[in-house]
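Box 3.1 A note on notation
Throughout this textbook, protein chains are presented in two layers. The first layer is the amino acid sequence; the second is a token string describing backbone geometry. Keep the layers aligned when reading.
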Amino acid sequence: SMRGSLLAYTEDCSFRGIAVRKNLYRSLLVVATMAGFALPFVASGQFPAESTIPKNKRKGNGRVKAGTPGPTPRTADGKVDLSGLWGYAGYTSDIAKDYDVGELPMKPEAERLFKERQANEGVEDPEARCLPTGVPRRDPYPYKLIQTKDLIVILFEGNIHSYRQIFLNRTSHPKDVNPTWYGDSVGHWEGDTLVVDTVGFNGGTWLDMAGHPASDKLHVIERYSRPSLGTLKWDITIDDPTYYSKPWNVTEIMPLMDAPGDEIIEYICQENERDANHLDNIKSDFDKKAKSNKK
């Protein structure tokens, strides 16, 4: 299957281009170096998802533990400076990879959706059809974080080459927030940690490639910190009463990418796009098998 692994998924999508594929390898190699595992492990597929395999039977669970050492930079007003080009954290395929089987507080409908998406290898994944990833989903490409006094902007290299805004100059969400893919994000500082509150989602996103669902009731609280020069720590709380019985947490570590020439590069998801037809064909095959099994 084209979606059998992160690398295979990328290599088969020719619209990404040679330059972008090289950038993915660069990002993945940074992860491999920081986490101490070989690149082939990173390419392990999202089907079945790691969180569906008992922890004692998993081959490994590589993730970035820390970036390069060095003092944490600060802005002129003394705030921690989160700005930088930040690499892949290792959670693209399965955001729940730190949980054992049955630990994630999914409601029955979430379980049904997740199992269905696992069974058909995520053929209806909106990200695979050039739609936004949303929050807190990450693709395996770098992003650039730009910090100002009143606003933080995140520029995504991958997915649809989009952006996200986090407003620091207001403390609340609009009363009638317009539902969007990335939601409405407001942030404030608690000491050296930036706390971001996001609501107002449109219900169209998945939390990962594996198919963990999210609804328009999704509420995400993020805590960004920079414990060292080369490390961005991202603590995420996912609260979605439609699909989960209680809030649950994920912590991802992203490494700073500061080698000479490192920069986000152009990525046009729709250019020479071939995924949609391929996935539609797979879905059609699954649907035919499902009908056949019911007879």
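Strands lie at 84-86, 143-147, 151-156, 163-167, 184-190, 193-199, 219-228, 231-239, 248-255. The radius of gyration is 19 Å.
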